[in-house]
Amino acid sequence: MNRARAMAILLAMGMLTAAALVLPAWSNVLLAGLAFAGLRKGRRAFLAFVALTLALNTLLFALLIPGPGAVHVGPVALGASGALLGVTGALRLSAILGANLAFLSWVPPTVLLDGLRLPLRMTAFLGAVLIAAHDLGRDAVRLVDAQRLDGSWPHGLRRKARAAAGLLPPLAVLALRRARTRADALRLAGHDMGPRFAPLVAVTAMAVAGRLVFTLAIPNVSLTFVVVFVAGLVFGVRVGALAGLLGMAITNLLLSGVYLVAFANAPAMALVGVLGGLLRRVEFSGVSPTDRWAGRFLAASCGIVATIIFSLSADLATWAFVAEYRDTPGALRTLVLAGLTFNLLSTAVNAVLFAAAVGPVSTAAKHAGVLSDVAVGPVSTRSAG
After folding, report:
1. What interhelical angle do 237-256 and 224-235 show, nearest 10?
2. Reduced 3-state DSSP string for 354-384
């Protein structure tokens, strides 16, 4: 694919996104229908997204913003105007996502990125991240399959989350070693990428794999949050924030193109990396059993806070992009409540993941020599808490 064709596709996706945001609400029904017809694959998943978004938005807005003429069923009031507002917003979001998915189902994102002919450093970084993410995802799937074959893979979401956390220390060390090998290869070819290239590639690749590949191997468990948090903990605020931002931006492009609402999760994930960097001096693994339990509790609390930040940013972006929501008092509150309710399961899973993974991964990084440049000693969780 040449650059002109790649730019034309990106322009078309951007124009359809803008059209879904500014055109009358009824036109989004037509746009969503055309997008569904243009999908080469993934029609069932798109229909599931549309149905869930319509049902959730309609019910919550009818309940929380009933408007005039509401029907009272005991203490509950349901309003047609609120339900219509929920339907309108859901159709806009569905039309935007469907238009982007329709293009991506015919033109793979990797082909599109290759056609853009990006600058050398950016191309080297993206190539290294995508290759490393593919390798890490393959390794994670094989590790899970091996445990399933010998009967040691657990049942139940909480136990699976803890088992998934156990995969992170070896995968983190392996990702860093592969990234350093690629950095050495580029330097031998005459392209010195700088000292932050290897850690940034390693963590970004783990974040991409945690969102795209690990979820397939371990349903309902995403390792991206804990990976980005530990990146800040191990490498500092700058690497953690960049890895979170780039990891989410890359996966957003791969999953939904220029679906603007989704990109609110990129700065939110960057904040997760900042949170880890701010706690860099805290020793989560501990020395005594009391310190280890304090570290697990603090890590679980960080997982809960990270999920809430992520949920609030996505809800704020939805409110900002949909005109009907911005013009309705109380719509932001409704979206926030809906997002927090929807993310209850993710919050619980992330609390378990953080408690189980943060200490062992930081310890593995120390043993691998990653933290040898830290100038100050760690602070125990007993004194920090």
Report:
1. 150
2. HHHHHHHHHHHHHHCCHHHHCCCCCEEHHHH
Does residue 131 contact residue 181 with C-beta atoms inside 8 Å?
no
Strands (E), the chain: 71-73, 76-78, 282-283, 379-380
pLDDT tens, 34-89? Answer: 888 888 887 888 888 888 888 877 887 777 776 676 676 666 677 787 788 888 88
**For the chain, how far is it from start to end, CA to CA, in angstroms?**
55
Determine contact, residues 310/269, Cβ cutoff 8 Å.
yes
What does R_g of the chain's alpha carbons equal in angstroms?
22
Backbone dihedral angles phi then psi of residue 48, each to the nearest 5 degrees: -65, -40
**What pLDDT digit, counting tens, does each position of 306-337 carry?**
888 888 887 888 788 777 778 777 788 888 88
Secondary structure class of 50 (helix, strand, coil): helix
CB 310 within 8 A of CB 75: no
| Residue whose tokens read 């931006």 | 249
Closest CA to 317 of 243, 239, 260, 375: 260
CA trace torsion 79, 81, 87, 88 (10° rounding): -160
Alpha carbons 272 and 314: distance in angstroms, whole number:
14
Residue 221: per-residue pLDDT: 57
**Of the candidates 58, 210, 169, 192, which has an alpha carbon nearest to the alpha carbon of residue 121?**
192
What pLDDT shows up at residue 169? 74
Give the tokens for residue 359. Answer: 């200490």
Q: Do the beta carbons of residue 133 and residue 110 sit within 8 Å? A: no
- Predicted pLDDT at 41: 81
pTM score, two decimals? 0.68
As to burial, measured by CB atoms within 10 angstroms (0-12 exposed, 13-18 middle, 19+ buried), residue 287 is exposed
